[in-house]
Structures are given as C-alpha cells and as structure tokens.
Write a structure and sequence with these properties.
Elements (H helix, E strand, L loop, with lengths): L1 E3 L2 E3 L2 E13 L5 E6 L7 E6 L4 E12 L4 E12 L3 E11 L10
Antiparallel strand pairs: 1-3, 2-3, 3-6, 4-5, 6-7, 7-8
C-alpha cells in the first residue's frame, strides 16, 4: 500500500510517500551446486533458508521543479524472522532538451 501527497510551492512539487507491504515465500530451501571438471573433482554447494513471511517498507520523497532539475530520496527496509536489512537511495536528475511539466 502506498500513501502519498503532492505539496506545491512556487512551481516546485514535493511528493512525500510511505509504502508498506507483507509477503510470504512459499518455496522451501534453495540450493546451487557448482562442480569443476578436468579431474579437479571439486564441488561447491550454496544453500539458503526461505524468508517465509516478511515485511517490506519505504519512506521517501520526490521533488519536481519547473526546470530541468528533479530529485528523490528514500529508505527501503525488509524485516523477516531470519533476515533484515535496509537501503538508502538518493539522486538528482537533469533533463536535456524540452522537459515535460511536473505531474499534477
């Protein structure tokens, strides 16, 4: 589910947002096996356990201007019984040529 709003100020639009969700992984353990040939006879097996039920979420904002500049910032997160993590993302955009009006 995403909740957001458009805030306008002197030709600039700021879109703060919050995203939340719940997922469930139905598959069991996964594995990957790699074997070498040519008489080396070495094997490597990687396995993982499923996340089962997990929660994901994001919080952030988009910024649009009347000119060629725009930007964004967000934090993404994942929480599960066997894993957790987050990512920070930010960026600016510069449009070359004719730009479209910001979303309304």
């Amino acid at each position: 589910m995403r909740l957001s709003q458009d805030l306008q100020d002197n030709g600039t639009i700021i879109q703060p947002f919050v995203v939340a969700g719940v997922g469930h992984e139905f598959w069991g353990e996964n594995s990957l096996s790699i074997s070498s040939g040519a008489g080396l006879d070495q094997n490597l097996t990687l396995t993982d356990r499923p996340l089962r039920t997990y929660g994901v979420g994001s919080i952030g904002f988009n910024v649009f201007s009347d000119g060629p500049w725009s930007g964004f910032g967000k934090v993404d997160g994942l929480v599960a019984s066997q894993a957790e993590g987050f990512a920070l993302r930010a960026g600016i955009r510069y449009a070359i040529g004719q730009t479209q009006a910001p979303p309304k």
